[in-house]
Amino acid sequence: MSRALTFHIFRHTPGNPASVPHLQDYALEEAPGMTLFIALNRIREEQDPSLALDFVCRAGVCGSCAMVINGLPGLACRTLTASLPPEITLLPLPVFELIGDLSVNTGKWMRAMSERLETWVHLQGEPDLDAIETPMDPDLAERIYELDRCIECGCCIAACGTAQMRQDFVGAVGLNKIARFRLDPRDRRTEPDYYRVIGDDAGVFGCMSLLGCHDVCPKGLSLQTQIAYLRRSMVRQGLTGPTRCL
Ligand code: SF4
Ligand code: F3S
Ligand code: FES
Fold first, then answer.
1. Mean pLDDT (whole number) for 218-233
2. Domains, the chain, with CATH or none
3. Of the residues 40, 41, 67, 77, which should be mutated to test ligand 3's pocket, given the most ligand atoms within 8 Å of the CB?
4. How far apart are CA 68 and CA 90, in angstroms?
5. Of 21, 135, 181, 189, which is the most buried if we count CB atoms within 10 A?
């Protein structure tokens, strides 16, 4: 027998001075295989077209449907309602700029983080296409690919106490990107270059090992391992480099 679900959904439009943040209730009958994505779209189609939320791929690839689901950040399109109790509370991800209701501007945050960390391959001199296309050791390519699976959903930022306190903290998503570029033999940056972008409290030394990021990452990335390894490397760099005082 299908369950009667009750959704408590955050509503607020920051651009509207008359809008007051509140939870709005919606009732919906559960269907077999129903995801939160399906439920929210049914609510929007059948009950309230004004409800704002983001989605693109419906398959856990674009990262845009992340929200706080009964207290934990997760992807609406990958969460079955059957895995939740009949009372479901949905909030927008914290930290990111609220656009409205469940929609937040993760893109603005991710772009600022990427520009700060320079998350692209830094070639030396003029691009040498032969060098760029040199076949990579398959095991190394696999390790880089594993870290490249990040979909920039923002769940790790929403689950991180440091990110709530420091707007400039690059979070697990940023640290994971530096871990990825350190592996890439095409990136000509050296350890002091990486230290320059993450060797401070807005980078790897701001992480307090709270591990919320690791627990909620929908792609199951080994964030705990990556951050611990980076921290050890950057401490060594700080001890031998010119800038950090431990
Ligand atoms: Fe999302 Fe995981 Fe990437 Fe963080 S590291 S943005 S939780 S996929
Ligand atoms: Fe935050 Fe993850 Fe560190 S939750 S404090 S980035 S271990
Ligand atoms: Fe793309 Fe959910 S809609 S990850």
1. 95
2. 4-103 (3.10.20.30), 118-245 (1.10.1060.10)
3. 77
4. 6
5. 181
62 C-beta closer than 6 A to ligand 3 = yes
Does 63 contact ligand 3 (Cβ within 6 A)?
A: yes
Q: How far is the CA of 59 from the centre of ligand 2 (A)?
A: 26
State the Cα–Cα distance between residues 148 and 196, nearest whole angstrom. Answer: 22
For residue 235, the model assigns a pLDDT of 87
User: Residue 234 contacts by C-beta under 8 Å, 6 or more apart in sequence?
Assistant: 194, 195, 198, 199, 203, 204, 205
Which ligand has an atom closest to residue 173 CA? 1
Identify the pLDDT of residue 242. Answer: 43
Query: What is the residue-averaged pLDDT of the chain?
Result: 94
